[in-house]
């Protein structure tokens, strides 16, 4: 039997990164796998002329800081999940490139919502978009206050081809944690709703939405009969429907791309709203 892939966490010395590390350590324990922790320091570093600073001293200093971050992270992980094997790596180079390569051999990549140094502004700029859009495994952005477990996982589906990936991620977790899977599907928030088609029979639209959710859930209900499921089918916008419920959830799960309300999720407004404002961690699952 093959060895399960590790959970990958990125740290930079910030409290946000340590919060993500704690989540990652717990996830590694749940999955029965190891935890790999990386700290990336950028090199070569522009903007520091040789006349002002000796290049090799700066490089050594950056690496020393990365190693210190890893030492702290390893100690925290040992407290959270003492039985989990922890491997640490100080990586040199472009942050996005290093993490993208590292994600090739990971079950999930876990990031904080904000950071210092190389991860500064991580989730507000191109770095996060690149990792969520082009990483080789699901990416979890740990944000929100840790106000205790709620026992609920939100999953946004829209009838697109990434629905099964998102549902699989959520059900796989719920099957071991006992959490309830809350499937959220919205309707009536597209072009027809925006221009106001008075003649459109919204009852039929709502019934079609209910049927879609039932169809998508059928195989997962059969496979994970022990997992409690709730279906929320509402006339709303996807981001708002998920955000409104995120304060009472432990995780929000969405596919990396979809159609309808979730179209352009990774590069559009929905993903930006989720990673900026969700009250709990957000998992983006790629196909």
UniProtKB/TrEMBL annotation:
Organism superkingdom: Bacteria
InterPro entries associated with the record: Rossmann-like_a/b/a_fold (IPR014729), Universal_stress_UspA (IPR006015), UspA (IPR006016)
Keywords, ordered alphabetically: ATP-binding, Nucleotide-binding
MF terms in GO: ATP binding
Pfam families found in the cross-reference section: Usp
Family designation: Belongs to the universal stress protein A family.
The name this protein goes by in its record: Nucleotide-binding universal stress protein, UspA family
Coiled-coil stretches noted in the UniProt entry, renumbered to this chain: none
Domain UspA: 7-143, 152-286
